[in-house]
């Protein structure tokens, strides 16, 4: 918790919620398996997520019952953290939390086959561990947990949570390594989803991420559904590795401005807003042309360093709001 609080991110505020009952995930028939992964010597943080209905077709996770969001709250850990995550199900559906990237036993798998679904009106505590890179006894290396991961439902609609994911039950899970650079702003989460949507919306109702020139900003891109997408950001480039930024002057990692994501894949990167290009309304979009044309487009709005907009930006934002004739979010109406 101490380390998490050093981050300048509002999304971690809710991490200070009360530790839920650890017995929730353990039943007599499963007592031979611990809910705590072997690498977790103690619970370092605890959070509570609430699954809440937003509309007839939308359900989101929130850090409090009145604040469900799509995507859900960005959860951040450092390698070595061991987090107890309690899911409170306030919906009328069977839902769960299934994480990518962390260490967990089958009791925290969040799947039906491992009795990990939460019935309506009930709650369950999952435990997510993590670890730094380490040497195995045979001298080989076990990679660390750090990465731009995500979590999602695995129970609603089908045994794979297809209905829950389509409704909005997903979010970013960032595991950092000690010493990683931190962004100046909350992470911009871009979810490339079904029906050619970003965060289940179509342009111009997709996110406009706002930063001032010179600020270090962080993106995480996550995909779900049946399609592959090519995330592209205008005017900025990043390094194609775990952190998305270069760590030495002769870093040989390729520099890119477009990256493909398939279902359940995710990646992240950090850039300096407007570096070498200045303020502007910089598009980000899927570069599959038919997806972009269908509304898979958003804006990174880089203001002047003092936070004001240029006249060019004002005109660009006006055009942006009027050039997309698709006021519907998909699937299922407005989120
Ligand atoms: Cu696409």
Structure in words:
The protein is mostly beta strands. The strands form six sheets. A five-stranded mixed sheet has the order 3-2-1-5-7, with no helix packed on it. A five-stranded mixed sheet has the order 14-22-21-16-19. The protein contains four helices and 22 strands. Copper (II) ion (CU) binds next to loops. Residues 192, 227, 229, 286, 288, 291, 296 line the site of copper (II) ion (CU).
Explain briefly what this protein structure is:
The protein has 335 residues and is mainly β. The protein is built from 4 helices and 22 strands.
Secondary-structure blueprint:
Elements: H1 2-5, E1 45-53, E2 59-62, E3 68-69, E4 72-78, E5 82-89, E6 98-99, E7 123-129, E8 134-135, E9 141-142, E10 147-152, H2 162-167, E11 170-176, E12 188-193, E13 197-198, E14 208-212, E15 216-223, E16 229-233, E17 238-239, E18 255-256, E19 258-261, E20 266-272, E21 280-286, H3 289-293, E22 297-303, H4 311-322
Parallel strand pairs: 1-5, 4-11, 12-15, 14-22
Antiparallel strand pairs: 1-2, 2-3, 5-7, 6-10, 8-9, 10-11, 12-13, 15-20, 16-19, 16-21, 17-18, 21-22
This protein binds copper (II) ion (CU).
Labels describing this entry:
Immunoglobulin-like; 335 residues; five-stranded mixed beta sheet; mainly beta; 8% helix; binds copper (II) ion; 2 domains; 4 helices; disordered C terminus
- How many domains make up the 3D coordinates? 2
Q: What compounds are bound to the protein?
A: copper (II) ion
Strand residue content: 25-35%
Which structural category fits the helices and strands? mainly beta
Number of strands: 22
Can you tell me the overall shape?
Answer: globular
CATH topology of the largest domain: Immunoglobulin-like
Beginning-to-end CA distance, first to last residue: 32 Å
Return the average pLDDT rounded to an integer. Answer: 90
- Oligomeric assembly: single chain
Q: Return Rg in Å.
A: 20 Å
| Helix content estimate | under 10%
CATH superfamily of the largest domain: Cupredoxins -  blue copper proteins
Question: Given the structure, what is the number of helices?
Answer: 4
In the CATH classification, which architecture of the largest domain applies? Answer: Sandwich
